[in-house]
What does this fold into?
Amino acid sequence: MFKKILIANRGEIALRIIQACRELGIATVAVHSTADNESLHVTYADEDICIGPPPPTESYLNISSVIAAAEITGAEAIHPGYGFLAENAHFAEVLAECNLSWIGPRPETIRQMGDKANARRVALEAGVPVLPGSSKPLASTTEARQLADEIGYPVILKASAGGGGRGMRIVTNPDDIESQFATASEEASRAFGDGSMYLEKYLVVPRHVEFQIFGDSHGNVVHLGERECSIQRRHQKLIEESPSVALDQDLRDRMGEAAVRLAKAVKYENAGTIEFLLDQDGSFYFMEMNTRIQVEHPVTEMVLGIDLVKEQLRVAAGAAVSFRSGLKPRGHVIECRINAEDPETFRPSPGRVTTLHLPGGPGVRIDTHTYQEYIIPPFYDSMVGKLIVQGKDRLEAIERTRRALDFFVVEGIRTSIPLHKKILQDEKFRSGDLSTRFMEEFFERNAKSKVDT
Ligand code: ADP
It folds into this structure.
């Protein structure tokens, strides 16, 4: 096992990795920007090094500073968390040259699955269903038009290098395909430094159901069940849960088996997620793979009673994966992502947290780096923490989440807590009638009821 690792991240995920390291007796090195001098990951790590000014490109994304920090402190491995350098194959490669271990999949796998158009091809070759669409990036506007005409509207244009819900355009009208392709591609090159686009059939009311998988360097791959992440705003997840009410055991087995087959096809090592869209008729389609730990990993941890981050460390150090596929869920788990944002406009709301009271009690887990008097810097992700709640069944999980949200007090900034409370009271949510359109319809329903009253 490693004796000391460096965490190339910040916020709640950096803390989560520190927790896992503490339990395994691994010393930790935190890196941080000058905006994060007062951050908890800096406080709790055994050592810390400032790697630059606030902008991510000058600190958390600065590969040479991160590597220098590892070399100075004698860390043996780097855990990238999620975001920042987590899916940067070049970074993972450079680490190998510097004799540093990478806590994640092999760089070839990151490259193979990181390009979303290429990942579709890999899935097709592995016999995993994908939606009709392009098997390589679109060469021209004409090609986009031809393909869209062939598969039928609506279609979705996606950036091959996209992520975080950005770089996607839904096209319902054939007259718009050319102009949408041009603007989307331009946007993608500005956002990701790569304008290549692909397209696929757009499903109007699917569910987002993803499978947690885990592989090791001995060729084992297991799946750890699903998380339903259909509650999204602007293609970004707000609430995740497990198990999904849309899956019976047969469908769960088939989706899990497809996820394992795909992961085996790329000789996947460490934690990863295979995202599927599940259509109303029960057909499922591969959407993309995330080659890292996910924000919502605690849902799986809590519902199965396992520790994915400790397993990441063990497996990266050469151990075989200790889980088996098909572990039985223990009740039901729901996660709410609490963001520092205005609940009406969704604009980020950084600043000083003047009061903070975290709920506790049975079945409640909170992953957060926020504390009273903490100043949320404006430079990074607006998530202030995650509330993860377990109940014996979905209804108990919902009621527990509601009472935990009632006791969750954050003052000084605006948060998404009021929005979560409303969603958990919503009849459609409570009945489990979910789809990725849920939020759109929820806002329409609520705007209407405001007018009605
Ligand atoms: P990102 O990598 O940016 O998260 P994804 O490819 O995972 O992008 O898609 C994010 C979300 O966009 C999905 O969860 C889903 O809601 C929506 N989406 C993506 N592709 C499709 C599609 N073909 N049909 C319907 N919705 C889609």
Summary: The mean pLDDT is 96. The CA atoms of residues 225 and 252 lie 7 Å apart. DSSP finds 15 helices and 20 strands in the chain.
